[in-house]
Request: fold
Amino acid sequence: MADYKIRTFKGFFWNHISKLAEYGLTYIFGILLARNLGAIQYSIYVTLMSLASFSIILGGLGLDETLNKYVPRITIEKGNSITNYLVKKLLRYRVLALFIITVIIFIFRNEIANLIGIKNFGLYLIVLSFYIFLQSLVNYFSNFFIAQLKTRIVLVINLITKFLTLGIGIYLLATGHDLYSIILLLAIISALTILLYLGSGGYKFIFAKIAKVEIKEPISFGITTWGNMLLTFMLGKNSNIIILSLIIGNLKQIGFYEIAFSFTQLIEYVFAVGFTGVALSSFSSLAVTDNEKLKDLRTLLIKYFQFIIFPVSMYVLFNAEFIIKLIYSDQYIPSIFLLRIFLVFNIISVSFLGSGSNTAVLFAIGKEKMVLVVRLITGLLNIILILLIVPTYGIIAAISITGACLLISVTFEFLLAGKFIGWKYDYLYLMKIVFVCFFALGISVLFAKYVFQNHFINMAVYSFIILLGYHLLKIVDLRLKKILLQIHMVMQ
Reply:
């Protein structure tokens, strides 16, 4: 198998395990908060974290993606001393931007709390501002290590810090501590994470000797990417939560919305989050050496998404009620319908169109400004429709609008990526997977109705039919087998 594929999927594996551990443990932590705090307090937590996410993106200046694109390229072309200069320079910009945002939140904490509908929570925002500053630096160091494909280090640090967060969080909830203690815990863990990255080799790049060089191109890319991220935020969960807190006034509804959105994202994260950063780094290397390999790798990633994410998403779609009640309890039943709505849009975006792989391709070939235009149009459309329709039709309209706008955005990026690097899409492969999944759903439903009604046995029957269908129709082709084999070898 070609070296670039092996390198990409090895990097994917460790990055995937790292991101999966990070997101998975964070998600488990969120479930514990939802069950222990109740719908209203959990909605306040969700609103505060959405504000933190926006602030981190705002202060990030698009520099995480800049590292992913330019660190591997500059290291190969110009050497480590130039890379060190880039890393240090960008870090200074990030710290300055974060300092300004932190000061603004601290000064206007009470006004911000009143604006987003969580009155008397100004004190929480003081601690939240420190969390924002520290977590953004964590993201910077994490992406720097990922850009070098040193994803095992990221994995170990994520496991340590997330297990600490989960363990201490369980203790705090069990001993009756409030939401303030939880946010303080997150800030402390972020500080510890920074120390771990510095101790794992990050300090060498902070204090190493450097050779000055012109970094106009990386800065320009970062600014464009920053705009894309802000516009992507407009299409995402966190921006909607902030807007909904302003126009709905029902905190419980925000909690229901967050659970539906997050669980849909969880499916994609479990099986594909490892390509974050790694895909852009690999695409960037191929963009300047071999366009045919770039096109081939993109097609392979889409087939991987179809192979795994589509059957899982279809099972969740038809068993959403059981899953939500099992994980979150009966108090979050209104999330079920919202989950099904958003999941339909996500299935098309990820399994059919490849979702973020198209964005990574466009960034790698220098078409990030086109992504910016697409995100600008769809992001503004999302916000305008939410402001116009949601006050009348409620939370169902909000999640439907966001799902539709995300699908429009992904569709345009899919078409643009194909236009610039060439088309290579295996329609027959997708049709086989769709057939197998619907056949498996039908068999599992009949089994539950006439043989034995148990959700866990039903899940086992569905999985068995999927695997049998994949084998009979030879869906796991030679190249995909090699990819899975490489991932298995790395695991060993």
User: Anything to note?
Assistant: Residues 3-60 form the longest helix (58 residues).
